[in-house]
TrEMBL record:
Subcellular location: Mitochondrion inner membrane
Pathway info: Energy metabolism; oxidative phosphorylation
Protein name, as recorded: Cytochrome c oxidase subunit 7C, mitochondrial
Pfam family for this entry, one: COX7C
Length: 70
């Protein structure tokens, strides 16, 4: 069903991803590829509270700002 160009592109993409995973993976250690440290659970909890809290409070703060504008 696929043309020769599509098959070659599909195979090239598969080879590129396979080589990338083989050469650049971090060994499968959980949390190794995260941009923050997960070894201190209290620090992680504080980060998650700030991240989720800011996302949930932003619409209310924006609405309050618009209502108080003169």
């Amino acid at each position: 069903m696929l043309g020769p160009l599509a098959r070659a592109s599909n195979k090239l993409g598969r080879n590129v991803m396979t080589n990338f995973i083989r050469n650049h993976s971090h060994g499968g250690v959980p949390g190794e590829n995260l941009p923050f440290d997960i070894s201190n659970r209290y620090k992680l909890t504080a980060y998650l509270m700030v991240y989720v809290g800011s996302g949930l409070s932003a619409p209310f703060l924006i609405c309050r700002h618009q209502l108080l504008k003169k």
